[in-house]
Specification:
Distance between the termini of chain A: 54 Å
Shape of chain B: globular
Helix content of chain A: 40-55%
Number of helices of chain B: 4
Largest sheet of chain B: 8 strands, mixed
Radius of gyration of chain B: 24 Å
Structural class of chain A: alpha+beta
Number of strands of chain B: 32
Distance between the termini of chain B: 16 Å
Mean pLDDT of chain B: 91
CATH architecture of the largest domain in chain B: 6 Propeller
CATH superfamily of one domain in chain A: OmpA-like domain
Shape of chain A: globular
CATH class of one domain in chain A: Alpha Beta
Largest interface: A-B, 26 and 40 residues
Largest sheet of chain A: 4 strands, mixed
Number of helices of chain A: 6
Low-confidence stretches of chain B: 1-39
Low-confidence stretches of chain A: 9-47
CATH architecture of one domain in chain A: 2-Layer Sandwich
Order of helices and strands of chain A: HHHEHEHEHE
Strand content of chain B: 35-45%
Oligomer: heterodimer
Mean pLDDT of chain A: 78
Strand content of chain A: 5-15%
Amino acid sequence: MNRWLSLRAAVVLLVVVGAVACGKKQPPIARPIPPPPPVSTPVTPPPEPPPPAPTEPTPAPAPVAVPEDSIASRSLDEINKNSPLKPVFFGLDQSEIDQAGQQALANNADLLKRYPTWLISIEGHCDERGTAEYNLALGERRAVAARNYLVSLGISADRVKTVSYGKEFPFDPGHSEDAWSKNRRAHFVVTAK
Amino acid sequence: MTFFRSSRTVLLLLALAGASTVVRSQQPAPSTPPPQQQSDVRIEITNESGQPPKYAVPDFVAASSDADTIAATKIVGEVLWNDLDFEREFYLIPRDTYGSIPPAKSITDVPFDRWKELGADGLVIGSVQKTPDGNMRVVVRLFSVRSQQSVFSREYTGPASNPRFFAHTISDEIHQNQRALRGVARTRLTFSSDRDRERVTNTVENRQVKEVYISDYDGANQRRVTVNRTLNITPTWSPDGRSIAYTSYRRGFPDIFISLIFEGTLQNPTASKGQNWLPAWSPDGTQIAFTSNRDGNAELYVMNRDGSNVRRVTNNPAIDTTPTWSPTGQQIAFTSDRSGGPQVYVMGADGLNIRRISTDSNCDRATWSPAPFNELAFVCRTGGGNDIKVYDFERTEMRQITNGEGSNESPAYSPNGKHIAFTSTRSGKTQIYTVGRDGKGIRQVTKVGNNFFPDWSR
């Protein structure tokens, strides 16, 4: 039993020495940094058990939606039909991203961080008032503005393609300001997951 | 695509004498319509009171009794009336007023007094015959009613499959002979249409494809060119009429393709260099100007038609797009929003000497007229929609072509500069119309589905 132990110790020692020796011959290899301990790790003893339940019965908590699971299990078409990625809307002839647009893009950046394998296409769309030809460029500028904002939030530009459809594919075929405001948008499509 | 062996008629004294003998010289089949014959002795039919001469074009006479020839004969007369009316060089007397005048049974038996009564200055009569080898032969005369002389005499033989083309050729040759004008009856349009009601694939939205079509100038013989079930837009004829360059999303993003419509082959001169759209042929067909985002935002570039020798010609953080060449190829007009909203600018084809042309709010998508006119047609936002306006470089003044009937876009000049094709929503859907450069004589060209981005062959 003792010999067993000493043999194992010797083997471990050898392996460690060998590893150190090898490490000296070669430049250090970058290794993944171990994750920092969770901030909430209790260093203090676990809290006392909760006080006894109150006498009146509490309603059972409603089942919490687990968006991660439901989204991850969906097909691309299912995701895009009811997309968790929010569109960004623009003013007439504009491609600046307003506050609501920034919120939508922050939401979208969070999702893209949660699903780091997702690739997306940002479609630039316009209302019908500009000419069809000019709108191809305006839609392009809207899509690029949305991509640049996502990149500024830490999303890799490699994951985001842009395409302008000008006024070719209106979301609302109407001819009112209400329809136009829906059609001036950057629209997000998940293309791979 | 050759329809005729053109049988050229030598007029000269024979025609002056009203002789019925026609001297013909057969030519080999040309690959394109034959050049206009310049050697005719021109006797111009005029109107005594100085108005445009009044023409009558009664039904041609079927010289064969088979149903096909009878039907073709009807078509030739109707289409010729329409073609001659289109240029508005002559006043075409309505055909429903000819009723009681008997058709001429022969060249020497024309009831000139009756046509004179009707007010005709010029009279076009003709006959259509089936040849022993199954072709169609059309003989046509243009008479001066006053002098009862034949001033124009031709004979055409070709396939019977497209009688309209006989009429188009006759119309173009009469315009050349009488007005020294290059008529547009044999020119064509190209445009995009959603008429197929096919859905774009790979999208959850219900999106309709647009495919490239061609048609005769009057909307007849509409044919589909592209079949790829994506967006195919902004088609434009090469100056030689053998290719159509357009913007296609067939790879998921806009890129420029060239369909060689007679060969049935496809080229992609801008392949793999950013996104590229709105091709515009230089007048000599050797270069293509286009918009690309390859350097980060929409800028204008010029390349050789095979994609080589790409030069960037604008450099501005604003949008620069929708290029159009001047008739000499020395200048390019384009749209930029560098001053705020979109406006029309002109520069040298090298990108130098940029100057602004339009001043109304949101003017955009210019197209340069062919000679002899020197003007730009473009689109301005007017109230609820868009209207077509024209800037005349000589007079340095603007005129308006459409006036709020629906929204009007995408002007394109006919090769003789006298007409503009454009889109309008005036009938509800988006359709293609043609109108004179003075804003008169509007005609609807398309009726099926929605139709966009017209361009007129050179």
